[in-house]
Sequence to fold (562 residues):
Amino acid sequence: MGQKKTEAKVLYQQEIADGIFDMWMETDLAQTAKAGQFLSVYPRNGGTLLPRPISICEADREAGRVRIVYRVAGKGTAELSGYHVNRKVNVLGNLGNGFPLDAAEGKRVFLTGGGIGIPPMLQLAKDLRQEGKAESVAVIVGYRDHQLFLKEDLEKYARVYVATEDGSAGVKGNVMDAIAENGLEADVVMACGPMPMLRAMKRYAREKGIVAYISLEERMACGVGACLGCVCRTVEKDAHSHVHNARICTEGPVFLASDVDI
Amino acid sequence: MNTKVKIAGVEFKNPVMTASGTFGSGMEYSEFVDLNRLGAVVTKGVANVPWEGNPTPRIAETYGGMLNAIGLQNPGIDVFVERDMPFLEKYDTRIIVNVCGKTVEDYLEVVERLGDTKADMLEINVSCPNVKEGAIAFGQKADSLYGITSAVKKKARQPVIMKLSPNVTDIAEMARAAEAAGADALSMINTLTGMKIDVHKRKFVLANRTGGLSGPAVKPVAVRMVYQAAQAVKIPIIGMGGIANAEDALEFLLAGATAVAVGAMNFVNPYTTVEVVDGIEEYMEKYGIEDIRSLIGSVE
Fold:
Protein backbone atom coordinates (compact mmCIF):
# COMPACT_ATOMS: atom_id res chain seq x y z
CA MET A 1 0.00 0.00 0.00
CA GLY A 2 2.91 2.31 0.66
CA GLN A 3 1.13 4.72 2.96
CA LYS A 4 3.23 7.29 4.72
CA LYS A 5 3.14 10.59 6.53
CA THR A 6 5.30 13.13 4.83
CA GLU A 7 6.02 16.82 4.56
CA ALA A 8 4.71 18.43 1.40
CA LYS A 9 5.47 21.94 0.18
CA VAL A 10 2.83 24.36 -1.05
CA LEU A 11 3.57 25.39 -4.64
CA TYR A 12 0.43 27.30 -5.43
CA GLN A 13 -2.81 28.30 -3.77
CA GLN A 14 -5.75 30.25 -5.13
CA GLU A 15 -9.40 30.73 -4.22
CA ILE A 16 -11.25 29.57 -7.34
CA ALA A 17 -14.83 30.03 -6.13
CA ASP A 18 -16.39 31.34 -2.92
CA GLY A 19 -14.75 29.31 -0.16
CA ILE A 20 -13.24 26.80 -2.62
CA PHE A 21 -9.44 26.66 -2.68
CA ASP A 22 -7.10 25.17 -5.25
CA MET A 23 -3.71 24.04 -3.94
CA TRP A 24 -0.74 22.34 -5.58
CA MET A 25 1.78 20.65 -3.30
CA GLU A 26 5.17 19.14 -3.99
CA THR A 27 5.30 15.58 -2.66
CA ASP A 28 6.50 12.19 -3.86
CA LEU A 29 3.08 10.83 -2.97
CA ALA A 30 2.18 12.01 -6.48
CA GLN A 31 4.00 9.04 -8.01
CA THR A 32 1.60 6.47 -6.64
CA ALA A 33 -1.57 8.56 -6.35
CA LYS A 34 -4.70 7.09 -7.91
CA ALA A 35 -7.88 8.88 -8.92
CA GLY A 36 -10.38 8.68 -6.09
CA GLN A 37 -7.79 8.29 -3.34
CA PHE A 38 -7.44 10.94 -0.66
CA LEU A 39 -4.87 12.62 1.54
CA SER A 40 -5.11 13.35 5.25
CA VAL A 41 -3.93 16.91 5.71
CA TYR A 42 -2.83 17.96 9.21
CA PRO A 43 -3.47 21.47 10.49
CA ARG A 44 -0.66 22.95 12.63
CA ASN A 45 -2.87 24.43 15.30
CA GLY A 46 -2.68 22.07 18.28
CA GLY A 47 -6.35 22.69 19.01
CA THR A 48 -7.34 21.01 15.77
CA LEU A 49 -5.99 17.57 16.32
CA LEU A 50 -7.29 15.39 13.56
CA PRO A 51 -6.24 15.33 9.93
CA ARG A 52 -8.61 16.58 7.23
CA PRO A 53 -9.40 13.96 4.60
CA ILE A 54 -9.25 15.69 1.20
CA SER A 55 -9.59 13.98 -2.16
CA ILE A 56 -6.81 14.08 -4.72
CA CYS A 57 -7.93 16.33 -7.57
CA GLU A 58 -4.92 15.86 -9.81
CA ALA A 59 -1.53 14.20 -9.59
CA ASP A 60 1.40 15.13 -11.78
CA ARG A 61 3.30 11.88 -11.29
CA GLU A 62 6.42 12.90 -13.21
CA ALA A 63 6.84 16.29 -11.55
CA GLY A 64 5.89 14.98 -8.11
CA ARG A 65 3.04 17.39 -7.55
CA VAL A 66 -0.42 16.81 -6.12
CA ARG A 67 -3.41 19.10 -6.43
CA ILE A 68 -6.23 19.33 -3.93
CA VAL A 69 -9.35 21.43 -4.34
CA TYR A 70 -11.24 21.80 -1.08
CA ARG A 71 -13.98 23.80 0.59
CA VAL A 72 -13.30 25.74 3.77
CA ALA A 73 -15.65 23.96 6.18
CA GLY A 74 -14.14 24.66 9.60
CA LYS A 75 -11.05 25.66 11.53
CA GLY A 76 -8.69 23.16 9.92
CA THR A 77 -9.49 23.98 6.30
CA ALA A 78 -9.58 27.69 7.19
CA GLU A 79 -5.98 27.38 8.42
CA LEU A 80 -5.00 25.48 5.28
CA SER A 81 -6.53 28.16 3.04
CA GLY A 82 -4.16 30.72 4.56
CA TYR A 83 -0.99 28.84 3.58
CA HIS A 84 1.36 30.66 1.26
CA VAL A 85 3.75 29.23 -1.31
CA ASN A 86 6.70 27.29 0.21
CA ARG A 87 4.78 26.56 3.41
CA LYS A 88 5.31 23.00 4.65
CA VAL A 89 2.24 20.81 5.18
CA ASN A 90 2.08 17.42 6.88
CA VAL A 91 0.13 14.97 4.81
CA LEU A 92 -0.64 11.28 5.12
CA GLY A 93 -1.25 9.44 1.90
CA ASN A 94 -2.22 7.93 -0.38
CA LEU A 95 -5.32 6.68 1.36
CA GLY A 96 -8.26 4.58 0.21
CA ASN A 97 -8.79 2.50 -2.88
CA GLY A 98 -9.63 4.90 -5.74
CA PHE A 99 -11.88 4.36 -8.75
CA PRO A 100 -11.43 1.13 -10.76
CA LEU A 101 -10.15 2.22 -14.18
CA ASP A 102 -10.53 -1.32 -15.53
CA ALA A 103 -14.29 -1.10 -15.08
CA ALA A 104 -14.36 1.52 -17.83
CA GLU A 105 -12.88 -0.71 -20.51
CA GLY A 106 -15.03 -0.72 -23.63
CA LYS A 107 -17.78 1.13 -21.80
CA ARG A 108 -19.58 4.44 -22.07
CA VAL A 109 -18.71 6.12 -18.78
CA PHE A 110 -20.39 8.87 -16.79
CA LEU A 111 -18.25 10.77 -14.33
CA THR A 112 -20.64 12.68 -12.12
CA GLY A 113 -19.54 15.19 -9.52
CA GLY A 114 -21.55 17.40 -7.25
CA GLY A 115 -20.07 20.46 -5.51
CA ILE A 116 -16.94 19.58 -3.60
CA GLY A 117 -17.27 16.04 -5.04
CA ILE A 118 -16.16 17.39 -8.40
CA PRO A 119 -12.36 17.53 -7.77
CA PRO A 120 -11.60 13.75 -7.86
CA MET A 121 -13.33 13.58 -11.26
CA LEU A 122 -10.47 15.53 -12.80
CA GLN A 123 -7.74 12.94 -12.25
CA LEU A 124 -10.24 10.25 -13.14
CA ALA A 125 -11.08 11.94 -16.46
CA LYS A 126 -7.39 12.40 -17.13
CA ASP A 127 -6.52 8.76 -16.41
CA LEU A 128 -9.42 7.43 -18.47
CA ARG A 129 -8.37 9.65 -21.37
CA GLN A 130 -4.75 8.52 -21.07
CA GLU A 131 -5.66 4.84 -20.91
CA GLY A 132 -8.03 5.31 -23.83
CA LYS A 133 -9.88 2.09 -23.09
CA ALA A 134 -13.31 3.55 -22.39
CA GLU A 135 -15.63 3.82 -25.39
CA SER A 136 -16.65 7.31 -24.29
CA VAL A 137 -16.42 9.50 -21.21
CA ALA A 138 -18.94 12.18 -20.31
CA VAL A 139 -18.47 14.40 -17.27
CA ILE A 140 -21.64 15.69 -15.64
CA VAL A 141 -21.09 18.20 -12.89
CA GLY A 142 -23.49 20.00 -10.57
CA TYR A 143 -22.74 23.40 -9.04
CA ARG A 144 -24.62 25.81 -6.79
CA ASP A 145 -24.26 28.72 -9.19
CA HIS A 146 -22.24 30.14 -12.09
CA GLN A 147 -18.91 29.64 -10.29
CA LEU A 148 -17.95 26.63 -12.39
CA PHE A 149 -14.67 25.68 -10.75
CA LEU A 150 -12.56 23.04 -12.55
CA LYS A 151 -14.88 23.04 -15.59
CA GLU A 152 -12.15 24.19 -17.98
CA ASP A 153 -9.70 21.63 -16.58
CA LEU A 154 -12.25 18.86 -17.07
CA GLU A 155 -12.90 19.96 -20.67
CA LYS A 156 -9.31 19.07 -21.55
CA TYR A 157 -10.14 15.39 -21.09
CA ALA A 158 -13.84 14.89 -21.78
CA ARG A 159 -17.11 16.46 -22.85
CA VAL A 160 -18.55 18.34 -19.85
CA TYR A 161 -22.23 18.87 -19.05
CA VAL A 162 -23.19 21.36 -16.36
CA ALA A 163 -26.13 21.72 -14.02
CA THR A 164 -26.57 24.59 -11.57
CA GLU A 165 -29.00 24.82 -8.68
CA ASP A 166 -29.89 28.42 -9.53
CA GLY A 167 -29.94 27.90 -13.29
CA SER A 168 -27.25 30.52 -13.88
CA ALA A 169 -25.29 28.12 -16.11
CA GLY A 170 -26.06 24.89 -17.94
CA VAL A 171 -29.22 23.02 -17.01
CA LYS A 172 -31.17 24.30 -14.01
CA GLY A 173 -31.26 21.55 -11.40
CA ASN A 174 -28.88 18.73 -10.54
CA VAL A 175 -26.75 16.21 -12.41
CA MET A 176 -29.77 13.97 -12.98
CA ASP A 177 -31.52 16.84 -14.75
CA ALA A 178 -28.42 17.42 -16.88
CA ILE A 179 -28.32 13.73 -17.84
CA ALA A 180 -32.01 13.77 -18.86
CA GLU A 181 -31.91 17.13 -20.63
CA ASN A 182 -28.89 16.12 -22.73
CA GLY A 183 -30.20 12.63 -23.47
CA LEU A 184 -27.04 10.99 -22.15
CA GLU A 185 -26.54 7.26 -21.75
CA ALA A 186 -23.87 5.19 -20.06
CA ASP A 187 -22.84 1.66 -19.11
CA VAL A 188 -20.84 2.66 -16.02
CA VAL A 189 -21.22 5.53 -13.57
CA MET A 190 -18.46 6.87 -11.33
CA ALA A 191 -19.66 9.48 -8.87
CA CYS A 192 -18.63 11.68 -5.99
CA GLY A 193 -20.80 14.27 -4.32
CA PRO A 194 -23.44 14.89 -1.67
CA MET A 195 -25.45 11.94 -0.38
CA PRO A 196 -28.71 12.85 -2.22
CA MET A 197 -26.77 12.82 -5.49
CA LEU A 198 -25.12 9.50 -4.69
CA ARG A 199 -28.50 7.98 -3.80
CA ALA A 200 -29.89 9.26 -7.11
CA MET A 201 -26.95 7.74 -9.00
CA LYS A 202 -27.43 4.42 -7.23
CA ARG A 203 -31.14 4.43 -8.12
CA TYR A 204 -30.40 5.48 -11.70
CA ALA A 205 -27.87 2.65 -12.11
CA ARG A 206 -30.31 0.10 -10.73
CA GLU A 207 -33.11 1.26 -13.03
CA LYS A 208 -30.83 1.19 -16.08
CA GLY A 209 -29.24 -2.11 -15.11
CA ILE A 210 -25.73 -0.60 -15.11
CA VAL A 211 -23.01 -0.43 -12.46
CA ALA A 212 -22.21 2.63 -10.39
CA TYR A 213 -19.12 3.30 -8.33
CA ILE A 214 -19.66 5.95 -5.68
CA SER A 215 -17.19 7.69 -3.41
CA LEU A 216 -18.43 8.14 0.17
CA GLU A 217 -17.33 10.44 2.96
CA GLU A 218 -17.66 10.36 6.72
CA ARG A 219 -16.04 11.91 9.79
CA MET A 220 -12.66 10.25 10.14
CA ALA A 221 -9.98 10.06 12.79
CA CYS A 222 -7.08 7.82 11.77
CA GLY A 223 -7.65 7.53 8.00
CA VAL A 224 -5.89 4.15 7.90
CA GLY A 225 -8.51 1.70 9.12
CA ALA A 226 -7.62 1.45 12.80
CA CYS A 227 -10.22 3.54 14.61
CA LEU A 228 -13.40 2.27 12.90
CA GLY A 229 -14.84 5.79 12.97
CA CYS A 230 -15.79 6.14 9.31
CA VAL A 231 -17.90 3.12 8.50
CA CYS A 232 -20.81 2.72 6.11
CA ARG A 233 -23.55 0.09 6.06
CA THR A 234 -22.86 -2.73 3.65
CA VAL A 235 -25.21 -5.32 2.18
CA GLU A 236 -22.81 -8.21 2.82
CA LYS A 237 -20.69 -8.70 5.91
CA ASP A 238 -17.54 -6.61 5.65
CA ALA A 239 -14.17 -8.29 5.41
CA HIS A 240 -12.63 -6.58 8.41
CA SER A 241 -15.16 -6.71 11.24
CA HIS A 242 -17.53 -9.35 9.81
CA VAL A 243 -20.55 -7.18 10.58
CA HIS A 244 -22.12 -4.87 8.01
CA ASN A 245 -19.90 -1.86 8.49
CA ALA A 246 -17.06 -1.37 6.02
CA ARG A 247 -14.39 1.25 6.67
CA ILE A 248 -14.75 4.11 4.21
CA CYS A 249 -11.07 5.05 4.58
CA THR A 250 -9.80 1.55 3.83
CA GLU A 251 -12.35 -0.59 1.96
CA GLY A 252 -13.53 2.68 0.32
CA PRO A 253 -13.97 5.53 -0.22
CA VAL A 254 -15.09 4.14 -3.59
CA PHE A 255 -17.72 1.42 -3.35
CA LEU A 256 -19.85 -0.41 -5.83
CA ALA A 257 -23.21 1.32 -5.19
CA SER A 258 -25.06 -1.99 -4.95
CA ASP A 259 -22.74 -3.10 -2.14
CA VAL A 260 -23.61 -0.27 0.24
CA ASP A 261 -26.77 0.66 2.04
CA ILE A 262 -27.01 4.45 1.70
CA MET B 1 20.55 1.72 30.52
CA ASN B 2 17.55 -0.41 31.47
CA THR B 3 14.18 0.38 29.92
CA LYS B 4 12.59 -2.95 30.80
CA VAL B 5 9.62 -3.04 33.13
CA LYS B 6 7.74 -5.97 34.63
CA ILE B 7 4.01 -6.22 35.23
CA ALA B 8 2.60 -9.31 36.97
CA GLY B 9 5.66 -11.33 36.00
CA VAL B 10 5.51 -10.31 32.33
CA GLU B 11 8.57 -8.44 31.14
CA PHE B 12 8.26 -5.61 28.62
CA LYS B 13 11.28 -4.35 26.63
CA ASN B 14 10.11 -0.81 27.29
CA PRO B 15 7.08 0.74 28.96
CA VAL B 16 5.44 2.01 25.78
CA MET B 17 2.21 0.38 24.62
CA THR B 18 -0.73 1.25 22.42
CA ALA B 19 -4.08 2.18 23.94
CA SER B 20 -6.92 -0.15 23.08
CA GLY B 21 -9.10 0.94 20.19
CA THR B 22 -6.58 3.30 18.67
CA PHE B 23 -4.32 0.77 17.01
CA GLY B 24 -6.61 -1.98 15.71
CA SER B 25 -4.69 -5.22 16.11
CA GLY B 26 -1.53 -3.52 14.92
CA MET B 27 -1.93 -4.41 11.25
CA GLU B 28 -2.92 -0.96 10.00
CA TYR B 29 -0.11 0.84 11.79
CA SER B 30 2.54 -1.75 10.96
CA GLU B 31 2.92 0.26 7.72
CA PHE B 32 4.24 3.14 9.80
CA VAL B 33 5.68 1.65 12.96
CA ASP B 34 8.05 -1.26 13.56
CA LEU B 35 5.92 -3.14 16.08
CA ASN B 36 9.07 -4.87 17.37
CA ARG B 37 10.04 -1.59 18.99
CA LEU B 38 6.96 -1.42 21.21
CA GLY B 39 6.66 -2.75 24.74
CA ALA B 40 3.27 -4.16 23.84
CA VAL B 41 0.41 -3.91 21.41
CA VAL B 42 -2.90 -3.61 23.20
CA THR B 43 -5.64 -4.66 20.81
CA LYS B 44 -9.02 -3.20 20.02
CA GLY B 45 -11.69 -4.67 22.31
CA VAL B 46 -12.88 -8.11 21.30
CA ALA B 47 -16.19 -9.71 22.32
CA ASN B 48 -17.51 -13.27 22.16
CA VAL B 49 -19.45 -12.48 18.95
CA PRO B 50 -19.07 -9.74 16.29
CA TRP B 51 -20.41 -6.34 17.35
CA GLU B 52 -21.69 -3.84 14.81
CA GLY B 53 -20.99 -0.77 16.87
CA ASN B 54 -22.89 2.51 16.76
CA PRO B 55 -24.35 4.46 13.81
CA THR B 56 -22.26 7.26 12.29
CA PRO B 57 -21.12 9.96 12.84
CA ARG B 58 -18.88 8.27 15.38
CA ILE B 59 -16.15 10.89 15.53
CA ALA B 60 -16.13 14.55 16.53
CA GLU B 61 -13.15 16.81 17.01
CA THR B 62 -13.01 18.98 20.10
CA TYR B 63 -10.41 21.51 21.20
CA GLY B 64 -7.18 19.57 21.74
CA GLY B 65 -9.03 16.30 21.68
CA MET B 66 -11.70 14.19 20.11
CA LEU B 67 -14.90 12.41 20.97
CA ASN B 68 -15.53 8.91 19.73
CA ALA B 69 -18.58 6.72 19.93
CA ILE B 70 -17.50 3.69 17.93
CA GLY B 71 -19.44 1.35 20.19
CA LEU B 72 -16.79 -1.39 20.16
CA GLN B 73 -17.30 -2.63 16.61
CA ASN B 74 -15.27 -5.84 16.46
CA PRO B 75 -15.19 -9.12 14.54
CA GLY B 76 -15.59 -11.34 17.59
CA ILE B 77 -13.20 -13.78 19.20
CA ASP B 78 -13.22 -16.40 16.40
CA VAL B 79 -11.88 -14.05 13.73
CA PHE B 80 -9.58 -12.42 16.25
CA VAL B 81 -7.95 -15.71 17.20
CA GLU B 82 -7.66 -16.91 13.59
CA ARG B 83 -6.53 -13.68 11.95
CA ASP B 84 -5.24 -11.12 14.41
CA MET B 85 -3.35 -13.30 16.88
CA PRO B 86 -1.15 -14.98 14.22
CA PHE B 87 -0.33 -11.54 12.84
CA LEU B 88 0.76 -10.21 16.22
CA GLU B 89 2.69 -13.36 17.09
CA LYS B 90 5.12 -12.60 14.24
CA TYR B 91 6.47 -9.67 16.22
CA ASP B 92 8.80 -9.48 19.16
CA THR B 93 6.38 -7.50 21.30
CA ARG B 94 3.97 -8.40 24.06
CA ILE B 95 0.33 -8.95 23.16
CA ILE B 96 -2.33 -7.59 25.46
CA VAL B 97 -5.86 -8.42 24.37
CA ASN B 98 -8.63 -6.05 25.37
CA VAL B 99 -11.81 -7.94 26.25
CA CYS B 100 -15.33 -6.49 26.17
CA GLY B 101 -18.76 -7.91 26.84
CA LYS B 102 -22.37 -7.18 27.64
CA THR B 103 -22.73 -9.75 30.40
CA VAL B 104 -20.31 -11.45 32.78
CA GLU B 105 -20.75 -14.63 30.70
CA ASP B 106 -19.68 -12.76 27.54
CA TYR B 107 -16.45 -11.65 29.20
CA LEU B 108 -15.75 -15.11 30.57
CA GLU B 109 -16.27 -16.76 27.19
CA VAL B 110 -13.65 -14.51 25.61
CA VAL B 111 -11.28 -14.89 28.55
CA GLU B 112 -11.52 -18.69 28.31
CA ARG B 113 -10.90 -18.68 24.55
CA LEU B 114 -7.83 -16.51 25.03
CA GLY B 115 -6.46 -18.94 27.59
CA ASP B 116 -5.17 -21.20 24.81
CA THR B 117 -3.56 -18.38 22.85
CA LYS B 118 -0.23 -16.62 23.06
CA ALA B 119 -1.79 -13.48 24.53
CA ASP B 120 0.55 -12.29 27.29
CA MET B 121 -2.05 -10.42 29.29
CA LEU B 122 -5.74 -9.59 29.22
CA GLU B 123 -7.13 -6.12 29.63
CA ILE B 124 -10.74 -6.13 30.76
CA ASN B 125 -12.74 -3.23 29.39
CA VAL B 126 -15.26 -2.27 32.04
CA SER B 127 -15.15 1.38 31.12
CA CYS B 128 -16.28 2.02 27.53
CA PRO B 129 -18.84 4.83 27.74
CA ASN B 130 -20.32 4.13 24.31
CA VAL B 131 -22.26 0.93 24.76
CA LYS B 132 -25.44 0.72 26.76
CA GLU B 133 -25.14 -2.74 28.22
CA GLY B 134 -22.15 -4.21 29.98
CA ALA B 135 -18.86 -2.42 29.66
CA ILE B 136 -19.11 0.71 31.76
CA ALA B 137 -21.93 -0.66 33.90
CA PHE B 138 -19.30 -2.90 35.50
CA GLY B 139 -16.81 -0.11 35.92
CA GLN B 140 -18.65 2.65 37.72
CA LYS B 141 -19.55 0.96 41.01
CA ALA B 142 -16.95 -0.56 43.27
CA ASP B 143 -18.99 -3.67 44.07
CA SER B 144 -19.73 -4.40 40.38
CA LEU B 145 -16.07 -3.93 39.55
CA TYR B 146 -15.14 -6.28 42.36
CA GLY B 147 -17.61 -8.85 41.03
CA ILE B 148 -16.45 -8.88 37.43
CA THR B 149 -12.79 -8.77 38.41
CA SER B 150 -13.05 -11.81 40.66
CA ALA B 151 -15.13 -13.70 38.06
CA VAL B 152 -12.53 -13.00 35.36
CA LYS B 153 -9.63 -13.87 37.65
CA LYS B 154 -11.12 -17.31 38.33
CA LYS B 155 -11.17 -18.14 34.60
CA ALA B 156 -8.16 -16.25 33.27
CA ARG B 157 -4.95 -18.10 32.49
CA GLN B 158 -3.08 -14.87 31.85
CA PRO B 159 -2.55 -11.93 34.21
CA VAL B 160 -5.51 -9.55 34.24
CA ILE B 161 -5.46 -5.79 33.82
CA MET B 162 -8.66 -3.97 34.74
CA LYS B 163 -9.17 -0.84 32.61
CA LEU B 164 -10.75 1.81 34.78
CA SER B 165 -13.20 4.54 33.90
CA PRO B 166 -12.48 8.14 34.88
CA ASN B 167 -16.24 8.75 35.07
CA VAL B 168 -16.39 7.98 38.77
CA THR B 169 -16.49 9.95 42.00
CA ASP B 170 -13.50 8.31 43.65
CA ILE B 171 -10.88 6.63 41.48
CA ALA B 172 -8.93 5.40 44.50
CA GLU B 173 -11.95 3.43 45.71
CA MET B 174 -12.30 1.79 42.29
CA ALA B 175 -8.60 0.96 42.16
CA ARG B 176 -8.79 -0.64 45.60
CA ALA B 177 -11.87 -2.68 44.62
CA ALA B 178 -10.08 -4.12 41.59
CA GLU B 179 -6.97 -4.88 43.62
CA ALA B 180 -8.98 -6.55 46.38
CA ALA B 181 -10.69 -8.76 43.78
CA GLY B 182 -7.32 -9.98 42.55
CA ALA B 183 -6.55 -7.77 39.55
CA ASP B 184 -2.90 -8.05 38.56
CA ALA B 185 -2.70 -4.52 37.20
CA LEU B 186 -4.79 -1.46 36.33
CA SER B 187 -4.89 0.61 33.20
CA MET B 188 -6.27 4.10 33.17
CA ILE B 189 -7.88 6.23 32.03
CA ASN B 190 -10.52 5.20 29.55
CA THR B 191 -12.25 8.16 27.89
CA LEU B 192 -14.24 10.84 29.69
CA THR B 193 -17.89 10.98 28.68
CA GLY B 194 -18.56 14.11 26.64
CA MET B 195 -20.91 15.74 24.16
CA LYS B 196 -20.69 18.10 21.23
CA ILE B 197 -23.53 20.09 19.70
CA ASP B 198 -23.60 21.62 16.22
CA VAL B 199 -25.11 25.04 16.89
CA HIS B 200 -25.81 25.72 13.21
CA LYS B 201 -27.87 22.56 12.79
CA ARG B 202 -28.90 22.50 16.49
CA LYS B 203 -28.13 18.81 16.53
CA PHE B 204 -25.88 16.41 18.37
CA VAL B 205 -22.71 15.88 16.35
CA LEU B 206 -22.44 12.20 17.29
CA ALA B 207 -25.23 9.79 16.36
CA ASN B 208 -24.81 8.34 19.85
CA ARG B 209 -25.19 11.87 21.33
CA THR B 210 -22.43 11.22 23.86
CA GLY B 211 -18.93 9.99 23.20
CA GLY B 212 -15.63 9.39 24.93
CA LEU B 213 -13.21 12.30 25.11
CA SER B 214 -9.54 11.55 24.53
CA GLY B 215 -6.43 13.35 23.34
CA PRO B 216 -4.15 15.95 24.96
CA ALA B 217 -7.18 17.74 26.46
CA VAL B 218 -7.63 14.93 29.02
CA LYS B 219 -3.99 14.46 30.01
CA PRO B 220 -3.96 16.46 33.27
CA VAL B 221 -7.03 14.56 34.48
CA ALA B 222 -5.39 11.25 33.59
CA VAL B 223 -2.10 12.10 35.33
CA ARG B 224 -3.98 13.12 38.47
CA MET B 225 -6.01 9.89 38.48
CA VAL B 226 -2.96 7.70 37.93
CA TYR B 227 -1.28 9.45 40.85
CA GLN B 228 -4.31 8.95 43.11
CA ALA B 229 -4.64 5.29 42.15
CA ALA B 230 -0.91 4.69 42.59
CA GLN B 231 -1.18 6.06 46.12
CA ALA B 232 -4.10 3.74 46.83
CA VAL B 233 -2.89 0.36 45.52
CA LYS B 234 0.28 -1.75 45.22
CA ILE B 235 -0.47 -3.37 41.85
CA PRO B 236 1.16 -1.80 38.76
CA ILE B 237 -0.65 0.80 36.68
CA ILE B 238 -0.53 1.40 32.93
CA GLY B 239 -1.13 5.11 32.44
CA MET B 240 -2.73 6.71 29.43
CA GLY B 241 -4.65 9.78 28.35
CA GLY B 242 -3.44 12.22 25.71
CA ILE B 243 0.19 11.11 25.55
CA ALA B 244 1.74 12.87 22.55
CA ASN B 245 5.46 12.68 23.31
CA ALA B 246 8.08 11.37 25.72
CA GLU B 247 7.56 14.22 28.20
CA ASP B 248 3.89 13.34 28.49
CA ALA B 249 4.78 9.68 29.00
CA LEU B 250 7.33 10.59 31.67
CA GLU B 251 4.68 12.54 33.58
CA PHE B 252 2.69 9.34 33.90
CA LEU B 253 5.73 7.34 35.03
CA LEU B 254 6.63 9.94 37.63
CA ALA B 255 3.00 9.95 38.82
CA GLY B 256 3.27 6.24 39.49
CA ALA B 257 2.58 4.36 36.25
CA THR B 258 4.81 1.39 35.45
CA ALA B 259 4.00 1.61 31.76
CA VAL B 260 2.20 4.00 29.44
CA ALA B 261 -0.01 3.76 26.37
CA VAL B 262 -0.41 6.05 23.38
CA GLY B 263 -3.99 6.46 22.22
CA ALA B 264 -5.64 9.21 20.20
CA MET B 265 -2.28 10.66 19.19
CA ASN B 266 -1.69 7.65 16.95
CA PHE B 267 -4.33 9.25 14.71
CA VAL B 268 -2.50 12.56 14.71
CA ASN B 269 0.98 11.17 14.26
CA PRO B 270 1.25 7.47 13.40
CA TYR B 271 4.86 7.47 14.61
CA THR B 272 4.04 8.70 18.14
CA THR B 273 4.73 5.36 19.87
CA VAL B 274 8.29 4.97 18.57
CA GLU B 275 8.99 8.66 19.12
CA VAL B 276 8.01 8.17 22.76
CA VAL B 277 10.33 5.14 23.04
CA ASP B 278 13.23 7.17 21.62
CA GLY B 279 12.40 10.24 23.68
CA ILE B 280 12.38 8.31 26.95
CA GLU B 281 15.85 6.93 26.18
CA GLU B 282 17.12 10.42 25.39
CA TYR B 283 15.70 11.69 28.67
CA MET B 284 17.36 8.90 30.62
CA GLU B 285 20.67 9.62 28.94
CA LYS B 286 20.37 13.35 29.56
CA TYR B 287 19.70 12.92 33.28
CA GLY B 288 21.96 9.90 33.75
CA ILE B 289 19.15 7.57 34.73
CA GLU B 290 20.35 3.96 34.71
CA ASP B 291 17.08 2.20 35.32
CA ILE B 292 13.69 3.38 34.18
CA ARG B 293 12.13 1.76 37.23
CA SER B 294 13.75 4.41 39.40
CA LEU B 295 11.46 6.97 37.78
CA ILE B 296 8.21 5.23 38.62
CA GLY B 297 6.25 7.21 41.19
CA SER B 298 9.26 9.37 41.99
CA VAL B 299 7.52 12.73 41.73
CA GLU B 300 8.17 14.99 44.71
